[in-house]
Design goal:
By secondary structure, this protein is mainly α. The protein has helices at 5-34, 38-58, 64-90, 100-118.
Length: 119
């Protein structure tokens, strides 16, 4: 079964927004490294690049079943990143992640929106 053009448009928007998000996350992890917060920086970097890679892979999936699996993986990665970013936000010794949490919430909403069209 092929995805419809609206789903394809949503996937394109998700890819663009997630690409910008991951670039912003990379900048944030570099800031964490400068502040000697290497452990969390590494975890965030890995989670963010895995998320971005999965979003990129999903752009080229044509079967709904495979796309749904990719979306599940994205949601799991997003939840992990949000938890790590919240730790940073509420820790007195970490720099504030600024808009990263709200940007991630927007991406998660897009993922859920695409998932709903597959059901």
């Amino acid at each position: 079964m092929n995805i419809n053009s609206n789903e394809s448009k949503e996937k394109t928007i998700l890819f663009r927004e997630s690409f910008v998000f991951v670039l912003d996350l990379i900048r944030y992890t570099e800031l964490l490294e400068k502040k000697k917060k290497d452990s969390l920086a590494k975890k965030l970097f890995e989670a963010g690049t895995t998320f971005g890679k999965t979003v990129n892979e999903a752009r080229f999936v044509e079967k709904n079943e495979k796309l749904y699996c990719k979306l599940k993986k994205m949601k799991k990665n997003a939840q992990n990143m949000k938890y790590l970013l919240q730790l940073c936000k509420y820790s007195a010794t970490y720099p504030n992640p600024n808009n990263l949490i709200s940007d991630l919430d927007t991406l998660t909403y897009r993922i859920l929106k695409i998932s709903e069209t597959l059901k």
